[in-house]
Amino acid sequence: MIYSLLLTLKFILYTNLIKVEYNRISIIITSSLISALILSLIYRSKSKHKSRNSLIFYSVVSILMLGNATYFAHFNNLLSVKLIPQIPQLKTVGENLKILLDMKKLLLITDIPIIIAYRFFTRSKARAKDPIHPLHRSHSNVNLFNVGARPQGFSISSIINFIRRPIVLGVAVIALFAIFNINGTINTIKTQELFTYHLLDIKNTIIKDEKAEADGILTKADIEDLKSRASLKEGNLTGIGKGKNLIVLQVEAFQNFAVGLTYDGQEITPNINKLIEDKSSIYYNNYHQMLGRGNTSDAEFVSQNSLYPSMEEPTYTQYAHNTYYGLPWLLRDNGYNAWVFHGYKADYWNREEAYVNQGFQRFISEKDFTFDDIIGFGLKDEDFFDQSIHYLKELDKKDENPFYAFMITLSSHTPFLMPEEYQTLKIREEHKDTMLGNYLQAIHYTDKEIGRFIESLKKEGLYDDTVIAIYGDHFAVLSTDENEQPIMSDLLGERYDFDSMMNIPLIIHVPGEDIHEINTTLGSQLDFYPTIANIMGYNNEKGLVFGRDLNNTEENYVFPQTYMLKGSVITDTSVLEISRDGIFEHSRAYDRETRKEIDINQFKALSKKAEEEINKGHYILKHDTLKELK
After folding, report:
1. Per DSSP, which regions of 414-498 are E strands?
2. Residue-wise over 253-267: b if at least 16 C-beta within 10 A, else e?
3. What is the rounded distance in angstroms from the CA atom of residue 101 to the CA atom of residue 300?
4. How many Cβ atoms from other residues are within 10 Å of residue 451's Cβ?
């Protein structure tokens, strides 16, 4: 009874932490009934370890709630068994976990050590009284947490008698929900109730979702459409970078709000701003992240291939051996050498294995750099850029061919804890030790090193004949963080929401060209490959892409699938956020300019289109469609 009561209290806290908005009472009742039933079965079993088993169940459920709440705080989603292969990577995000594990979440497990200590104390006391028969104690000394000793007259009927009430009540409540399905109660339970969600997650992991498979089937018309998006069409800026080298910088956690931001008279990204203001640059300010389960690695995958990433596992892990025809292969087919640079472990996110089929010929990783200092969990950007110059010079001389260098920075990685000597901004008192305050210091440092890197390219004679593209991999500050959201809203002067959070910058610089422009066309990382392919002037005849050339496109949409659920939509003027329970009627839509909520019904057709598009992307990965076409 005590375990059941404590779990009910925890379910109340848990549903608050994972932001259950609809049918919360129904979810709490369902979780409480299921846990009460399992506990009653444990206590009425023939096992000699009822008390221990019930404590194990209680602890596992509590820890699972903590895991879900912590994961939700950063990813706006619940844990899945598909994430088990990523457990070894937890050691690299220790500082992140410290920030996410606040006292509210820790309340889910703080009582477990107390219960264990109490059990140990009472059992020790009992042994001291009767060392020969420690378990034969009088009823006056019954352990409060060991009330499940078998009663006299134990029988099957007594089991049924004991558990009948919770079962009958549970069946009655679930039947009531099913009959009336008040406010989509059943669907809410399936997607947010602890036991139901995880059981269905396990089932869906083992058994394929036939409906999603059917929805994702590609028709000949679909394939022709994706081929058409890939093919080069003569238009604005076509071929202005042809024959030049290409350097692409994927900057860790580079959000668009930092570009052009002046903070108490301090320019946060002066070097990026200078590059944008150059007459040879295009700045895409309505550009968004497109991630799956792999975060940074998925940002790479999407940008290089213009394909939707997996939502089951990181794409580099699940589909490392698929056939691809992304940017590295396209450039290699046109005489380029393609290398990739990252100052961390080669096997992290399975990069070393995945890069081979992505088309990269060499991976310059942690083992190829000399470490003078570390910021966060890897090589600091200063050393990364300085030492990469030597490899770029080697690459430039290789076969006298142009090169493609894809470079991934690291220092501005969450939680943005910069050593004091690198904190050069004066941060307001109210922003000190906040995610925003720490982030401004980190991205300011990275901007400084990007500026130095560009100067090094000029010094080494690599600049004039090299196209430079810079974009962010994903957001820095979560818009659903209750502490950071008001701070960000105050800084921006408007409500900080999903579209602001997912908005990352893209800058493409072609030295010697008079192309200065701020491109406001809506886009995402899916659009990078067709956009840069147009600028480089090479026709993609072998691939399929979901993105579009942002220099020659008018209408475009962004269909997120993580942080916002599949079916969500970002348009030029508005945002549809599908409800966490997956029920369209519970969803929210708002105007991107006024931030006011608008009617969701106008998005039904577009939401369905978003689901279909993402399902087709998943189908391509699951069936290795490019291999079949090849």
Report:
1. 466-472
2. bbbbbbbbbebeeeb
3. 29
4. 17
Give CA separation, 332 vs 162, 273, 335, in Å.
71, 32, 5
Which residue ranges of the chain lie beneath pLDDT 70? 89-98, 126-127, 129-184, 208-216
Q: Residue 245 region, left (φ>0) first, then alpha (ψ -120 to 50), else beta?
A: beta
DSSP code per residue over 180-232: H-GGGHHHHHHHHSHHHHHHHHHHHHHS--HHHHHHTPPPHHHHHHHHHHHS-
Q: Backbone dihedral region of 341: left (phi > 0), alpha (psi from -120 to 50 degrees) or beta?
A: beta
Task: Please write down the HEC assignment for all residues of 340-361.
Answer: EEECCCCCHHHHHHHHHHHCCC
> Which pair of structure tokens corresponds to residue 532?
């840069």
Question: What is the tally of helices (H) and strands (E) in the chain?
Answer: 23, 16
Tell me: the pLDDT tens digits for 323-363?
Answer: 999 999 999 999 999 999 999 999 999 999 999 999 999 99
- Backbone angles phi and psi of 160, in degrees to 5: -60, -40
One DSSP character per residue, 69-83 reads: HHHHHHHSS---GGG
List the beta bridge partners of residue 589. Answer: 576
What pairing do the DSSP bridges indicate for beta strands 337-342 and 362-364? parallel
| Structure confidence by residue, pLDDT tens digits, 237-268 | 999 999 999 999 999 999 999 999 999 999 99
Residue 282 parent element (H or E)? strand 281-288
Comma-separated ranges of CATH 3.40.720.10 domains in the chain: 219-538
Identified catalytic residue from 15, 196, 269, 296: 296
Ramachandran assignment for 247, one of left (phi > 0), alpha (psi -120 to 50 degrees), beta (any other): beta
* 630 token code pair: 């090849």
Query: What confidence score (pLDDT) does residue 359 get?
Result: 98
Helices 435-459 + 484-492 axis angle, to 10: 60
- Helix runs in 372-434, H state only: 381-397
Strand spans (E) along 75-187 = none
Backbone φ, ψ for residue 258 (5° rounding): -75, -25
Which conformational region is residue 282 in: left (phi greater than 0), alpha (psi within -120 to 50 degrees), or beta?
beta
Q: Which residues contribute to the annotated binding site for substrate? A: 413
pLDDT for position 175? 63
pLDDT of residue 497: 97
Question: Would you call 92 a catalytic residue per the annotation?
Answer: no
Q: Which residues are annotated as a binding site?
A: 252, 296, 413, 473-474
pLDDT tens digits, one per residue of 486-532: 999 999 999 999 999 999 999 999 999 999 999 999 999 999 999 99
Give the tokens for residue 587. 């969803």
The answer to whether 18 touches 72, Cβ cutoff 8 Å, is: yes
Q: Can you read off the two tokens belonging to residue 38? A: 């399992």
Sheet holding 569-570, edge to edge: 569-570, 574-577, 588-591
Which H or E run contains 590? Answer: strand 588-591
This model's pTM is above 0.85: yes
Cα distances (Å, whole numbers) of residue 249 to 48, 300, 355, 457, 515: 62, 10, 16, 13, 20
Q: Which residue has the tokens 């209750």?
A: 482
Q: Which residues are annotated as a binding site for Mn(2+)?
A: 252, 296, 473-474
- CATH homologous superfamily, domain 219-538: Alkaline Phosphatase, subunit A (3.40.720.10)
pLDDT given for residue 124 in this prediction = 74
Dihedral of CA atoms 448, 450, 451, 455 in degrees, nearest 10, equals: 140
d(CA 450, CA 618): 35
47: DSSP letter = -
- Cβ atoms < 10 Å from Cβ of 97: 12
Give the pLDDT of residue 84. Answer: 82
The pair of structure tokens assigned to 73 is 């705080």
